[in-house]
Amino acid sequence: MILLISPEQTSATEIQTLHKLFEAGLEHFHFRKPEATLEAHCAYLDQVDPQYYQYIMTHNFHHELTAEFPIKGIHLEERKWRAQGDELGAYVKSFTDKEFAVSSSYHEPEDLAAQSVDFAYHLLSPVFAAISKSDMQGRGFDVRHIPKFIAGMGGISVETTPEAIKLGFQGVGALGGVWNAENPVQAFKEMQTAFLSAE
Predict the structure, then answer these.
(1) What's the pTM value of the predicted model, to 2 decimals?
(2) Where are the domains of the chain?
(3) With bands split at pLDDT 50, 70 and 90, how would you rate the model's confidence at 139?
(4) What Gene3D superfamilies would the database entry show (predicted)?
């Protein structure tokens, strides 16, 4: 599983590139635009070919998009799922009952291992030094002892993908490793190859 996080700021060529990434096999796109309004989110999705909605997870900001677009589901960043407190299970169920997927983020493997709410998959970061955030140092998490589906985030590139698999991650999540590349589609394809050939 390779998932791709959107850049926070939308470029003029992003939608065009995104379509090419879907055509290249991208099946997990995390739509994360923290500064964008609901209207901007809708305008973005209106430009995406509806056949690809099934691959899109929206982040914290506008979960109500699930009422307007048949997207895959929602993602809860750590502060969002923590803010739910005892209501987290009910909140997640309100989406899963409608057949939306729900995923969540963590920064400590102990918190992920202890999570009692059932999520489709979990993101853990930072595994390696981040490409898109120069001040984020990697922690080299080894998750082979945690019996959950975990995707590693932070510093994920074609070079680090095999290392992440060796640490027990069943998936990887990229941002800078794809979007900052000279050719994002080619970078994604190379990451796919590295992921599929990793042991």
Answers:
(1) 0.92
(2) 2-197
(3) confident
(4) Aldolase class I
Looking at domain 2-197, its CATH architecture is Alpha-Beta Barrel (3.20)
Q: How would you label 8-19 residue by residue, b for 16+ Cβ within 10 Å and e otherwise?
A: eeeeeebbebbb
Query: In angstroms, rounded to a whole number, what is the distance separating the alpha carbons of residues 14 and 11?
Result: 5
Q: How far is residue 54's CA from residue 149's CA, in Å, rounded to a whole number?
A: 20
Taking the alpha carbons at both ends of the chain, their separation in whole angstroms is 14
Task: For residue 123, give the DSSP letter.
Answer: E
- Which amino acid, residue 150? I
Share of the chain above pLDDT 90, in %: 85
Q: Which residues contact 111 (CB under 8 A, 6 or more apart)?
A: 78
HSE, side-chain direction, 13 A CA sphere, residue 151: 22
State whether residue 29 is helix, strand or coil.
strand
Neighbours of 64 (CB within 10 A): 12
